[in-house]
Amino acid sequence: MITFDNVTKIYQRGAAPALDHCSLNIGPGEFVFLVGASGSGKSTLMSLVLREERASSGQIHVLGQDITKLSRWKVPGLRRQIGTVFQDFKLLANKNVFDNVAIAPQVIGRPRHTIALEVPEVLETVGLGGKEKRMPHELSGGEMQRVAIARAMVNRPKLLLADEPTGNLDPQTSVGIMRLLTRINQNGTTVVMATHDSQIVDQFRRRVIELDEGRVVRDQERGIFGMRSE
Ligand SMILES: Nc1ncnc2c1ncn2[C@@H]1O[C@H](COP(=O)(O)OP(=O)(O)OP(=O)(O)O)[C@@H](O)[C@H]1O
């Protein structure tokens, strides 16, 4: 699903690499927590998977394609197969819940009648049934994140990247969001989640990949957040 082979990313000449000879392999159906101090390279890794950034050296395979060689016109096709969820939700403030989710299938040209069926279905799945007409400012943080997850899910991506999805949420709401991501994963979507949330990582016990200064320093099945408490 994702393979990094000796990947280095240097943003500016002379600066320390954001990723430094990084190798990892994430298979289909896995749920992976990506942890590490601020600046360790987690967001860079995700940007490379989405081809928002290009590797300085090394090879990256995503969904069976060598994306280091992927021509520019094929990048939108790659991104359409990947759902993304961020800490700041990234909802469109002037669009209601339905329209915020409907954007994803609209972009890939799904017919309007299919969208009219699929969007309420996915909103039901994330626990927002009946809230289609609400505007983002009428939602709680947890509800906003559910809208963002619904938008990420609606095209049934094989891969979901979540960058600090619980970063702005209280612990109880975070657990609700995690249950949702777990359910999405159980339905076959590979989930990679970058997080600083030690409670969540320790509670959900999944594979943990830890980065430090751009290098993979730990890769552990059913891991915990930090090495300290081992
Ligand atoms: N667009 C950019 N231009 C230059 N340097 C960058 C850029 N993006 C990230 N960096 C640098 O690359 C390194 C890794 O940053 P990155 O954002 O990947 O870390 P992170 O682990 O996601 O951090 P955080 O947990 O704070 O989000 C840092 O030193 C950062 O300053």
From TrEMBL:
SUPFAM superfamilies tied to this protein: P-loop containing nucleoside triphosphate hydrolases (SSF52540)
Domain ABC transporter: 2-230
Main location: membrane
Gene Ontology annotations of biological process type: cell division
Membrane topology annotation: Peripheral membrane protein
GO molecular function, one term: ATP hydrolysis activity
Keywords, comma-separated and alphabetical: ATP-binding, Cell cycle, Cell division, Cell membrane, Membrane, Nucleotide-binding
GO cellular component: plasma membrane
Source superkingdom: Bacteria
UniProt-annotated location(s): Cell membrane
NCBIfam families in alphabetical order: FtsE
Subunit structure as annotated in this protein's UniProt entry: Homodimer. Forms a membrane-associated complex with FtsX.
Homology family: Belongs to the ABC transporter superfamily.
PANTHER family: CELL DIVISION ATP-BINDING PROTEIN FTSE, IMPORT ATP-BINDING PROTEIN
Protein name from the UniProt record: Cell division ATP-binding protein FtsE
Organism expressing this protein natively: Boudabousia tangfeifanii
